[in-house]
Amino acid sequence: MRPGRVARMPPMPKARCHCGLYGIVAHDDAVGLTHRGLFALQHRGQESAGITATDGRRVDAIRGMGLVADVFSDAELERLSGLRTAIGHVRYSTTGSPSLSNIQPLYANYARGWVAVAHNGNLTNGSALRKWLEARGSIFQTTNDTEVLVHLLALPTPSVTSDGKTGSELEHLFESLRRLEGAFSFLVLLPEGLVGARDRHGFRPLWLGKRDGAWAFASETAGFDVSRVESVREVEPGEAVILGNDGSMRSVRWAEATPKHCFFEHVYFARPDSRLFGDGVHEVRKRLGAQLAREHAVEADVVIPIPESGNSAALGYSMESGIPLDYGFVKNHYVGRSFIEPGEARRERTLEVKLNVVRDVVRGKRVIVVDDSVIRGSTAKRRVRMLREAGVKEVHLRISCPPHRHPCYYGIDFQHRGELIAAQYDDVADIAKLLDLDSMGYLSTDGMLGCATGPKDRFCTACWTGDYPIAVQDGLDKFAHEQASV
Ligand code: SF4
Predict the structure, then answer these.
(1) pTM of the predicted structure, to 2 decimals
(2) Which of 367, 436, 369, 432 is CA-nearest to residue 403?
(3) Computed from CA positions of residues 27, 28, 29, 30, in that sequence, does the dihedral angle turn out positive or negative?
C-alpha cells in the first residue's frame, strides 16, 4: 500500500453523511468505472477517497485526503489498470478523525488471507466491540468503527457449520455481521470475490447493478448512471449479495429484515437523480414541496429554492401553490476547492462566497424560501440577512421536513442536541424570530412520510421524533451479554 496524498479540504456543509460506496467485479475497466462512480458519489463524502483493486493475486490501492478529482492521478490509475475487481469509497468521518490512516477502503492481511473493507454508516456498538477486541490483543490502526469488522474477521476461531465442520470465510463474515449493531452498508473484498451487505434495518442505501455481464454495487443509482451500469435492484436489509470472480451472483439472508430506511436521505443527502428505497428522489422531494404548500400556505410573489437540495421541493411548492418559481440564490460551485479557512470564520466566510442573491428576483417581493432543513440555524440566519440586504419585502421560510430535535447515531454528523436549533426552542415562532423571518413552517412527520410510497413505518424518523429503531445502549448491552456467555 502506498501512503495517500493530502489535498485541500472543502468547507463544511450544514449536515454531513458518512460515506459513499462503489464496487465492480470481473470487468476489464473496473478501476476506471469505480473512479467515475466515485465522482457521482462525491456529495456523500468529501474528506477522503480511495480505490482498492485486485486480480485475485495482486492487491493495490490509491488513497488520499480531499476530493476525488484531487486524489487520483492518471499515472496512479494506470498503475491499477488490469486489475479486474475494484471497490471505491468517499468519506466524511462521523467517527474517527480525518487522517490518512482512516481513509477507506481499509486493507489487512490476516492468518487466512486478506480483506479490504469499505463502509457507509455508523456502528452503535463499535466502541464496545473495539474494547473487547483490544482486550484480546487486537491492535487497531485507525480510529474509525469500520476496523472492528476487519478484526472480527481475523479472529482465530472460524465459524462452525451446523454439521460441525469448519465454516468458510463467508460464513465467518456473516457471523461477524451479526455481532454489529447500528447502520451499515459494507463492501467486503475477499480473494474469492466481493460481498455487498446491508444492516437488518437498511438505514443506508446500497444498489446492485450490471454492465457487460459484470456485477456492481453503488450507494446510489447516480453512481451507476455515470459509469453506464444498469441499476438492477437494491440490496435488501439483512441481505448479503456475493459476487464471484467468475461472474456469479448469489444472495444470502444473514439477518431478518426490519426496514428503517433513513428518510433524511430522501430529504437532503441523496442526489435528486438517484432512486432510493423504491422511489425516485426528485419525485419524493417534489411531493414534499407540494405537501409543504398544503400545510403552510402563505400569500407571496415568488418561490425561491436554496440550491441545490431545495430545488425539487421548491418546484413542488410552486406547482401546488401556483406561485411562480424563480432562482433567487445562485451557487458558486468552485468554493470548495479554493476558499479554506478554519473554524467559525471559515464557515461564515464560506457561506458568503458560496451563495449570492439575485437582487432583481427578490427586491420588493414577498418571498417564500424553500430549504430542506435547518440544523444549527446559523446558515439560515445568514441567508435571511442576505435577502434583507437585497431589499426583500417579506421572507417566509418553508422547510421540507419536520424540526430536527434529536441527534442521529446512524451515520449523519449531528450527534448532539446542543447543535440543533429546534432542540433549543419548542415554539417555531421563536425560531422564526431568531432568524428574522416573517413566517416559518416545517413539514409534519406524517405529511413527510406520506410522500414516499409504501408503509410509513419502514422509515427511520429518529432525528425528528426521538423514536430510535436501535437504542445505542441496547447495542452495547447485547454485545456484553453475548460475550458473558462465550
Ligand atoms: S436519525 Fe434521522 S438522519 Fe439518522 S438515520 Fe434516522 S432519519 Fe436518518
Answers:
(1) 0.91
(2) 432
(3) positive
Q: What is the DSSP letter of 334?
A: T
From the CA of 414, how far away is ligand 1's center (Å)?
A: 10
**C-alpha cell at position 160:** 462452525
**How many Å lie between the centroid of ligand 1 and the Cα of residue 277?**
14
Q: What are the residue numbers of the active site? A: 19
CB 309 within 8 A of CB 268: yes
pLDDT tens digit string along 279-327? 999 999 999 999 999 999 999 999 999 998 899 999 999 999 999 999 9
Ligand 1 pocket test, candidate residues 258, 262, 414, 415, most atoms within 8 A of CB: 262
Distance of CA 135 to the CA centre of its chain: 32
Contact 412 CB / ligand 1 (< 6 Å): yes
pLDDT tens digits for 357-401?
Answer: 999 999 999 999 999 999 989 889 999 999 999 999 999 999 999
Q: Please, which pLDDT band fits residue 352 given cuts at 50, 70 and 90? A: confident
CA-nearest residue, atom 8 of ligand 1: 262
CA of 134 from ligand 1 middle (Å) equals 30
Domains in the chain, start-ordered, CATH in brackets? 5-260 (3.60.20.10), 281-458 (3.40.50.2020)
